[in-house]
Amino acid sequence: MNPVEKQLYWSERYLKNQAGWDCGAITPPIKDYIDQLTDKSISILIPGCGSGHEAEYLWMLGFRNVQLLDFAPEALALFSERVKDFPKDQLHCTNFFEHQGKYDLVLEQTLFCAINPKDREKYAKKMADLIKPTGKLVGVLFNREFEGGPPFGGSIAEYQQIFQAEFSSVFIEPCYNSIKPREGSEVFIKMGDPT
Ligand SMILES: C[S@@+](CC[C@H](N)C(=O)[O-])C[C@H]1O[C@@H](n2cnc3c(N)ncnc32)[C@H](O)[C@@H]1O
Question: Is 9 helix (H, G, I), strand (E, B) or coil?
Answer without folding.
Answer: helix
